[in-house]
Design brief:
With 96 residues, this protein is of the alpha+beta class. Helices cover 40% and strands 22% of the residues. The structure holds zinc ion.
């Protein structure tokens, strides 16, 4: 999956930035993070294709969750990500 430099979601444009050793607020290692205030999706550099696909979809779902007020939370976003990835893979849906 080639990740675009900008991702449009919920009517806004998010800049995609890659980092080495991406960390959360408490110093915990992260694969991805959506900053909905700064309109940035931060991604860990060097993930394999499957992991990158999962993480990008996960962060997009966080953005949708935040903007639409679904209140999915981390667990809900995780579950939805895994289910969607499974449907995409089971049906060989190509995401360019
Ligand atoms: Zn998350």
């Amino acid at each position: 999956m080639k990740v675009p430099r900008k991702i449009k979601a919920c009517g806004a444009e998010y800049k995609v930035c890659f980092h080495r050793n991406l960390c959360g607020d408490k110093g915990q290692p992260l694969f991805g993070q959506a900053d909905v205030n700064k309109y940035i999706i931060n991604l860990e550099y060097g993930m394999d294709q499957q992991k990158k696909q999962e993480v990008v979809l996960h962060e997009i779902l966080h953005i949708i969750d935040f903007n639409k007020g679904f209140n999915l939370g981390e667990k809900g976003v995780n579950n939805l990500t895994l289910e969607l990835i499974q449907v995409i893979r089971d049906n060989k849906i190509k995401i360019s």
